[in-house]
Amino acid sequence: MRYLPGILAMATIVVASNILVQHLLGQWLTYGAFTYPLAFLVNDTTNRLQGARAARIVVVSGFFVGVICSLIGSQIEGEFGPLVSFRVALASGLAFLAGQLIDISVFNRLRNRVRWWPAPLAATLIGSVLDTCVFFTIAFAVSLSFLEPGNDVTWANETLPLLGLGPAAPLWISLAAADLCVKLVLGIFALLPFRAMVWRFSPRIA
């Protein structure tokens, strides 16, 4: 199957990120923040080499793998309840679809530019912003508590200096800001492997 490499790569990233997100790295991040952005690299590389239809198939495959991971996580009890709550599962799925699909749309609008880098860069950065906003808002904003009344997210709405330095803001805003910063930085660095893979497998369209 010609789409299998992209599907396997996306599935691996989704599974790894669902595991690593359970492990904290400092005050604002988890280890999953450093693997999840690679989904945009897989998406953009597939799009460039095989087209938008192939990229959508890879994204949908990753979404279903994420759903399976969420179902498994919801059955595992952690210190404060299930590892994956309904809100987090919903936020994760919607954020993944929104971010990855807008990535495809932006990439397609820019794919015929003379230079090779505007399409993957703009697609990844815009997709990352949307992904982050959707996930953290749905998962932790107190105004959306009706989505899962039994899930107490008051801890995420504790008012603290933004990233420990800036103006006062809910904790989840700092978590979102730190996560987005990692996505944006990795999105820039991902241009190098994107270029290398496209050149390796199809130099005429690199």
From TrEMBL:
Domain of life according to the entry: Bacteria
Transmembrane helix among keywords: yes
Gene Ontology CC entries for this record: plasma membrane
Bilayer topology: Multi-pass membrane protein
Keywords for the protein's UniProt record, in alphabetical order: Cell inner membrane, Cell membrane, Membrane, Transmembrane, Transmembrane helix, Transport
GO-annotated molecular function: transmembrane transporter activity
Principal cellular location given in the protein's record: membrane
Subcellular location: Cell inner membrane
Chain segments annotated as transmembrane: 26-42, 54-76, 88-107, 119-147, 171-194
Pfam families recorded: Vut_1 (PF02592)
Record carries keyword Amino-acid biosynthesis: no
Summary of the function given for this chain in its UniProt record: Involved in the import of queuosine (Q) precursors, required for Q precursor salvage.
Family per similarity comment: Belongs to the vitamin uptake transporter (VUT/ECF) (TC 2.A.88) family. Q precursor transporter subfamily.
UniProt protein name: Probable queuosine precursor transporter
